[in-house]
Design a protein that fits this description.
Heat Shock Protein 90, ATP-binding, five-stranded parallel beta sheet, alpha/beta, five-stranded mixed beta sheet, transferase, single chain, 12 strands, Rossmann fold
Length: 431
């Protein structure tokens, strides 16, 4: 992490620098006591975090903040304001102009590190997302180049199948993220109104105290009944009791929504980490199943009842992304099967368990089943029972090859026509 500390008082610069030197934070620190030099320093260095004093001669910290935030390339820099000010207007101006946080002066070690570590975490996440985006762009370019150079028709159709699946997944994930974001926005709007009323009430409290100009002895002897009645009436008009009762629930709902978005993004990251890498590592199959269900949840909940039975299982050595793709492919097949018969009582059961020293996963649905004369062909490349042009017939072929060939596992299917279909795949346990 590259950190720039700006303060016209050299003592503050020394204190902040000393704290960083004795910490275990891996960072490169630049000190500056002239606010007019900040713009040049930022243009010449790739700073991750800036600690910026508000009150400085020549140019205030807020003026410097405005200059930095006016340039799009600096948007992801975390900016923390140093301040000994306590008025709300100063804080409001800082945040309105793009400050991410603040550190009180005189600098206290505990607060300094707490706020700095939060900024480092936020900046690290931003860098990770940027790298992930660049990697996906690079991977996409590589795939485009590969499609241009390879003439094999079969490979091109498999790529088309994958791209179609990614498109459907992206639409479902976008919907799942939009739902919690919707009520997060609504909750924040409500909280904004609540805060405004609470601020009004606080101003009334302060106005009474200031108007009477009472010291401690006066307060003991002063009859506050008139003011108390006024305050109670004001609280009733502003519905302060209602607001105080509702705020906790609104904040909890908002946190739940944020956590849900975080889980969806985390699931996408887990699949993206090894999506194009030949990486076999220790994984929990239950977690991979949960992530696949989360990513497909929008389609699943609209078609069928989902029952997950997570057994107590040992870990397996596998490529997380590939196994996730297999599970999503099988779940998609179950969804399409249930849709095909317009079954309003559709049900999908996903079960993990251990059997004969092997870690297993079964996915069953109560769709139309598979006829016996078709069952032996379902893993053949390009075989499909769907209408021509609606499916490439390679999904189960890829799933079978991933499980059996790449992971040395077993893949089995059983079906009772007009009743159910069960796909089961098994891996060797690492024990």
């Amino acid at each position: 992490m590259k950190i720039l500390i700006v303060d016209d008082e050299k003592l503050n610069l020394k204190i902040a620098n000393d704290y960083l030197e004795k910490s275990n934070i891996n960072c490169e620190v630049t000190l500056c006591n002239d606010s007019t030099e900040v713009e040049k320093l930022v243009s010449e260095n790739n700073f991750d975090i800036i600690l910026l004093d508000i009150v400085m001669p020549k140019m205030t910290g807020i003026d410097v903040l405005k200059i930095i935030r006016s340039k799009e390339e600096y948007n992801n820099i975390q900016i923390l304001m140093f301040t000994s000010l306590t008025d709300n207007d100063s804080f409001k101006k800082c945040f309105e102009n793009g400050a991410d946080d603040y550190v009180n002066k005189p600098i206290k070690e505990v607060e300094f590190f707490a706020r700095l570590k939060a900024a480092i975490k936020t900046r690290s996440n931003a860098i990770m997302l940027e790298e992930m985006f660049e990697r996906i762009k690079k991977q996409n370019n590589e795939l485009k180049l590969l499609n241009k150079t390879l003439q094999d028709t079969q490979f091109q159709i498999i790529q088309k199948e994958k791209l179609a699946a990614i498109g459907e997944l992206a639409a479902g994930v976008a919907h799942e993220i939009n739902n919690p974001l919707g009520y997060l926005g609504s909750n924040l709007e409500t909280l904004s109104k609540f805060v405004s009323k609470i601020q009004t009430m606080i101003e009334e409290y302060r106005g009474i105290i200031k108007g009477k100009n009472l010291d401690e002895r006066d307060i003991e002897n002063y009859n506050m009944s008139k003011e108390e009645a006024y305050i109670r009436d004001m609280e009733k008009k502003l519905k302060i009791d209602f607001i105080m009762g509702e705020m906790g629930g609104i904040i909890k709902d908002s946190l739940d929504g944020a956590n849900r978005v975080s889980k969806i993004v985390s699931s996408l990251q887990n699949f993206a980490k090894t999506g194009f890498e030949d990486e076999m590592v220790n994984n929990d199959l239950n977690i991979i199943v949960d992530e696949a269900v989360l990513l497909l949840n929008n389609d699943l909940k609209s078609v069928a009842e989902i029952e997950k039975i997570n057994g107590i299982i040992t870990n397996i050595i596998c490529n997380r992304s590939e196994i996730g793709q297999v599970i999503m492919s099988l779940l998609t097949n179950s969804l399409q099967a249930i849709k095909s018969q317009n079954n309003e009582n559709g049900k999908i059961i996903i079960r993990t368990f251990e059997e004969d020293g092997k870690v297993c996963c079964s996915i069953s649905d109560n769709g139309p089943g598979i006829e016996e004369n078709v069952l032996s062909k379902i893993f053949d490349p390009f075989f499909t029972t769907k209408e021509i042009g609606t499916a490439a017939g390679v999904g189960l072929t890829i799933a079978h090859d991933v499980i059996v060939k790449r992971h040395h596992g077993e893949f089995d299917v059983k079906s009772i026509p007009r009743k159910e279909t069960i796909f089961t795949f098994k891996f060797k346990s690492i024990n």
